[in-house]
Amino acid sequence: MQVAAKRLITLSNDFIERAKAEITPHWGELGWVTYKRTYSRWIESENRHEEWDETVKRVVEGNINLDPRLHEDHIDPEVVSELETEAQNLFKLIYSLSATPSGRNLWISGTPYQDRNGDALNNCWFVAVRPQPYGDSHILPEYLDQDQLAVSMPFSFMFDQLMKGGGVGFSVVQDNVQQIPAVDTNVKLTILVDKASQSYDDSVALGATDKQQWLNEHTLDEGRYYKLPDTREGWVLANAHLIDMHFNGTNPERSNNLILDVSDIRPKGAKIKGFGGTASGPMPLIEMLFDTNTLLNSRVGQKLSSVDCTDMGNLIGKTVVAGNVRRSAELALGSSDDDAFITMKQDQKKLYHHRWASNNSVAVDTQKKDYTAVADSILHNGEPGIVNLELSKNYGRLIDGRQENIDGAVEGTNPCGEISLANGEPCNLFEVFPSVATEQGFDLDQAFTLGTRFAKRVTFSNYDWEVSRNVISQNHRIGISMSGIQDWILKAFGNRVVRGFKDGVDPETHEAIKEPVYDQRVVAKFDELYHDIVAADNAYSETLGCMPSVKHTTVKPSGTVAKLAGVSEGMHFHYAGYLIQRIRFQDSDPLLPALRLSGYKVEPDVYTKNTVCVEFPVRAAHADSAEFASAGTVSIEEQFATQAFLQKYWSDNAVSCTITFQPKQEGSKIAGLMKQYRHSIKSTSLLPYSGSDFKQAPKEPISKDIYEKRRAQITNNVKDVYASLNTMDKKDLELIDQSDCVSGACPVR
User: Fold this and answer.
1) Are β-strands 429-432 and 99-101 bridged in parallel, bridged antiparallel, or unpaired?
2) Which of 42, 44, 96, 154 makes a 20 to 30 Å CA pair with 681?
3) Residue 398 burial (CB < 10 Å; 0-12/13-18/19+)?
């Protein structure tokens, strides 16, 4: 599966110019600004950011050249010709904003970083927290053999993927954490820092020790010494050393003295060349290592609990977030009868210190019928979500019936819940906007076929971890999604998919329920498109000589990517028909003068220094339609029914959905609806709907009159104004608090 870095297929400048003359990108009202500050990479040689056509060219070339036929000793010229045509069609599809790969691909594909770290093309990952071997991976502590079980391995995997910008789901169900042996050793941790380090004072303030002073009184052979290189791997290995020293199986010398030297770690504010952004200095790592050591030392003679393991994962997530522009997205999956796990966020001190770093869900099966405790917890703090592993293992689309162990290795999910995953496996996403694609003149079968082939090629990337290489080569899992689903159904069919409810009976409990009634025209179209994707995958898999994908379709929550085209996010209903969307910028951003001159309201952010808040008036597609519903008006019953529809007829993976509810009117319905749909939904989460409950809220519903008044004040196109100002571009600027998913669970890039 490892491929060399080659670029045989390129898009000519003549083609690019012709395509730009023919196609106008379908920018949403926030689209171009979001793109410019989220996915447009800095071109060092020209001292500026990419333009959209340059981004798309980079992304398409980075992907098309992953085709394994281009890495054989003898390359068929017909293959090159075929892929050149496909690259051109992909360019048109993405440039027009009829579809996009994931935000990760928009940021990484076609860069040198892709060749070094192919993992970075995938949004999110999953790992089971139990002792595992590192195997033939790019990270292997020198005190371990490849095949040796180590408690540190899942935490190293998590730390590594988070620092590459991916999200990580991790399982702390009882079957996993009970495999971890009791903690054997109380470890003395010493962290050294040299006076020459620019981080010296801040590091000492956090408990680090002056290196020279320590060496005057000690020698390095008094314990296990590790000097961290200034690399991502160095951080991961430092944490691995710490964890593994607490267990006799990975501490053969029975040392209880660990000496870590952070002197060489680059200071806060230094540039990170590969992934982008700026460094945090060693301080967050120092804090994490001391906190983790304190936790492990407190458990000597005992086994770690699910809460302990989640805390260790959350401390890692907190450390990665501190790296300035990096994001950390975690989902912790616990057992449904683990009360300590379910209630762990009620400890406010630990919640604010580190437990905020993960969304927490519980693993259930179809036998679970009592959701009272889960619903009560959701009402209080919006968690936990639920993940039905039984359905994920034995079903693709629900309409296709039970297929025993069709995905039997599944153990969890990515942080947004749209992809059920085996240990070490990533989600692999591509997203089509059907209403935009149709408007731009694309046949939907063609759009989804191109997306299928794009995602399939990602499975042939370079993967750093053996556990991932093994499961990817077996499953070739892809997740072809669509966004703007509510917009498209309204546009194409004139109504929402749920046409009402009829009386029914739960076949197991014999209780009366209300069964959804679906528009059969919508059912038929989704079913047709699903089979188009499967056919495209089967054909391409046969061509490449690999296994067909174990699963193919999903609905990702979307978020930042949906803003590019201005469509509703995933399966979600628009937040409101008309709203003010507030976006935060660094106050030095050169886009701000253009935004002011274009008529947008710009004011200082009331919460954060050196940040400004820009208000964008937004109208949802079909806002004035009698069939339009928003997150603030659609019933909880219709949202459950819509998610079940997509799980039944579209997604053979899962469907990411954050169901909004009115706490006073609908909170009492949650447990009953979870019970009713226990056979129909693989994963879901719920949050209370809030309008503009605080100052400068990210989204504020407004009336049509206010929208039209605010829209009339926008007198210029910000893209054109920005170009006319000939402003000097600046490096390392971005929109603040943007995420690739509507729930904020997944990272931007």
Assistant:
1) antiparallel
2) 154
3) buried
Q: Is 6 helix (H, G, I), strand (E, B) or coil?
A: coil
Winning range, highest mean pLDDT, from 67-76, 239-248, 345-354: 239-248
What's the confidence (pLDDT) of residue 280?
80
- Catalytically active residues, by annotation: 416, 418
**What tokens does 377 get?**
């917890």
Provide CB contacts within 8 A for 571, sequence distance 6+: 485, 486, 555, 642, 643, 646, 655, 656, 657
Token digits for 82?
């075929």
Q: Which two tokens stand for residue 646?
A: 């997509």
| Rounded alpha-carbon distances, angstroms, from residue 570 to 16, 416, 488, 497 | 30, 12, 11, 15
What is the Cα gyration radius of the chain? 26
φ and ψ at residue 407, rounded to 5 degrees: -140, 50
Buried b (16+ CB within 10 A) or exposed e, 174-199: eebbeebbebbbebebbbbbeeebeb
Sign of the CA dihedral with 348 first, then 350, 354, and 358 last: negative
- Output the 3-class SS for 645-666: HHHHHCCCCCECCEEEECHHHH
Give the mean model confidence (pLDDT) for residues 143-154. Answer: 97
Q: What angle do CA 605, 608, 614 make, to 5 degrees?
A: 25
Give Cα 725 distance to the centre of its chain.
35
The structure tokens listed for 711 are: 């829209």
Cα–Cα distances in Å, from 350 out to 155, 170, 311, 330, 731? 20, 19, 9, 16, 36
The per-residue pLDDT for 734 is 64
Is residue 277 within 8 Å of residue 325, measured between CB atoms?
Answer: yes
Q: With CA atoms as reference, report the closest residue to 549 among 465, 471, 646.
A: 471
